[in-house]
Amino acid sequence: MKKFPADFIFQISSLFVAILLVHAIYVAIIRPNANAVLAAQAEQINADVNYVPDRNFFVIVRDLEQEACFVLMLWAMALMLAKARDNLRERAIFELDLLPAQLSNSILPEDTRDYARPIEALDPNAQQRLLPRALLTALHRFRATANIQDVASTIRATCENESERLDSELSMIRYIAWAIPSIGFLGTVRGIGQALGQAHQAAQGDIAGVTQSLGVAFNSTFVALLISIVVMFLMHQLQLAQERTTQEAEQYCDNRLIRFLQV
User: Are residues 177 and 235 in contact, defined by beta-carbon separation less than 8 angstroms?
Assistant: First the structure.
């Protein structure tokens, strides 16, 4: 219950920082350069009817939909960076000597208190990590039941619950990955709507407004899909790292604890 407010505050603060950063870049760099490029291209088109303007990065990303997509991308990256940091801290626990690497004797139910003391001596934050929790739960269950199969089931259930918790915490990132192409399609609809509203000008021979509106439609979709590909790739890499950590924690318990248990 204490972690939820901290996570919520981090999500809100990271979104606020992403909005400020992206909007500052757009106001100071992207939109002034895009307006300058469009003005130069308009002059060249008026001077030469055969002139074909080149695609420019500032023009492609200058609209509101692209700005919103970049905000969501930075927000998702901030959330994934926090999850990746937590995963690295989980993996750092594997380097600690929670259990002896080589046990010469079998572990009996009355020996579990001795093996639990090094784990209980960890600081409270470290004890909340997956591996210490799984080991402590297994040792306590073995002392209470003296049943090796019950201990194995307890470890498996602990790791499965952790995997489900990590998967549920990725729901916000999945929502962002879905929202980015949706915003791009909104830009497409807006651009096509503007183009249809200027159809009477195109009928009179002035297609500049229609062309610019269609450019808004296609550019927003292009940028949104490209950003969505990057976000989805990073999210799947994060999910893969989390699943590997959970699996390795279960293997650690099997190799370093369960095979030494004896009733």
Answer: yes
Report which residue type is found at 260: F
DSSP the chain: --HHHHHHHHHHHHHHHHHHHHHHHIIIIIHHHHHHHHHHHHHHHHH-TT--PPP-HHHHT-SHHHHHHHHHHHHHHHHHHHHHHHHHHHHHGGGS-SS-SS-SSPBPGGGHHHHHHHHHTS-HHHHTSHHHHHHHHHHHHHHHH--HHHHHHHHHHHHHHHHHHHHHHTHHHHHHHHHHHHHHHHHHHHHHHHHHHTHHHHHTT--HHHHHHHHHHHHHHHHHHHHHHHHHHHHHHHHHHHHHHHHHHHHHHHHHTGGGB--
Cβ burial 188-209 (10 Å sphere, 16+ → b, else e): bebbeebbeebeeeeeeeeeee
Q: What is the pLDDT of residues 18-49, one digit of tens each?
A: 999 999 999 999 999 998 988 887 788 777 76
> Which residues 6+ apart lie within 8 Å of 61 measured at CB?
30, 34, 67, 70, 219, 223
- Predicted TM-score of the model (pTM): 0.86
Identity of the amino acid at 64:
L
- Of 175, 176, 170, 172, nearest to 243 by C-alpha is 170
Across the range 223-252, mean pLDDT stands at 95
Domain spans in the chain, listed from the N-terminal domain onward: 72-263
Q: Which residues contact 29 (CB under 8 A, 6 or more apart)?
A: 58
